[in-house]
Amino acid sequence: MTPNPSPEPDEGPVRPRRKGIYVLPNLFTLAALFGGFYSVVMAMNGRFDLAAVGVFCAMVLDSLDGRVARMTNTQSAFGEQMDSLADMVSFGAAPALIAYEWSLKGLGRWGWIAAFVYCACAALRLARFNVNTGVVDKRYFQGLPSPAAAALVAGLIWIVTDLDVRRQDTEWLTWTQISWLTFGVTLYAGLTMVTNVPFYSFKDLGMKKTVPFAAIVLIALIIAVINIHPPTVLFGLFVAYGISGYVVYAWRRSKGQQVSVISTSTDDPDERGLH
Hints:
275 residues, two-stranded antiparallel ribbon
């Protein structure tokens, strides 16, 4: 009769594997967050040109973190939440505070109302984006994306500052008119973020796909044109993009085509109103 095998020694409870975060994509997110923080600090010091540049740098870095995460297969729920919080600072709070400090505070209560409306719309837009990620057509954004809205506000500040327009009247434009122009652009950018107007997302342009040689030449030409006068060219590009959604919306309406970018519906009744 064979003896019973000796029981294996008790090794104790198995320790759960410690979860970590991916460094590379979150470095880009932190850098974008620093761009927004830097912009606010520069606005407090009266360097509105550097504040506007900081917003544009944050926009470039924000466009890279998601692409880097997908290319390196390092997507995570932590990264998604971190990106949303950084976007709220860089493209929500920072542009509103810069615009208010630059010229909106000269309008009294109307100035801070415009700044708050922009900031609130940025928060609503980011929250809706997180909720509707699975039901929106990937080729379009539902409403103006927050980086483009921030570029509209920062671009106006950058181009006027670059023209060396001080807080005084000039031969062609008074400072009060500039303040009201900032008021209109800030409200337009904020309210357009929470509309259902479709804006092309450029997400169907694969970075890993081959492209014709002419496409590389076109990219080089675009970079050269931007270098002619960055404030004017960048502001003009984002003005065109900020209007393009309404053009697409009106064209689809005239053709009787679907204007909503929602591709499917959700079973949660609490989310249907966000569509």
